[in-house]
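Open question from group meeting: does this chain pack into something compact, or does most of it stay loose? Before anyone orders reagents, we agreed to write out a predicted structure and look at it together. Recording both the input and the output here so the notebook holds the full record.
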Amino acid sequence: MSKMTKEELDELQALEEGIEKDAAAAEIAAQRQRLEALRMRKRLGAKHGVHGRDFVVLETSAGVNVAIRRPNDVELDAFEVAKEKEPRAALESFLSSIVLEPSKEDVQAMLASYPTMGAAFAPAINTLMGSVREEEAKK
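C-alpha cells returned:
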C-alpha cells in the first residue's frame, strides 16, 4: 500500500475540519433549541399548568419545539376510536387539535415533511393521556 500524497493528506485534513465545524454548529443549534424549549416550557407553564401533566414541550429532530396540551376526554375518546381505522391520519389530526405552539399549520407542514415524526410524539401523548384517564378514574 502506498503512502498518501500531500494533496490527499491536505484534502483529508480539510474534510475532517469541515466535519468538526459541522458538529460544533450542530451542538450550538441543539443547545439553542434546548434553551428555547425551556423558555417555552416556563412561558406556557404560567398559562397552561404543570409540564408533563397539563402540557408537554417536545424538542423535535426537525429543530422545532412543539408544545401540546392535555386533551380533554372527548378528544381522547375520538382519537382512540379513529386510530383503529387510520392510525397516521388520526394521530396527525389529534396532534393538530391539541397543539399549543407552533401553529397547527406549521405542525401539519412538519408532519408532511417528516412523515415518521408523528410517532415521536407518542410518549408525550401517552403521558398526557394518562393524566386524563387518572382524572376520569377519580370522578
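Observations to bring back to the group:
The mean pLDDT is 88.
Residues 6-48 form the longest helix (43 residues).
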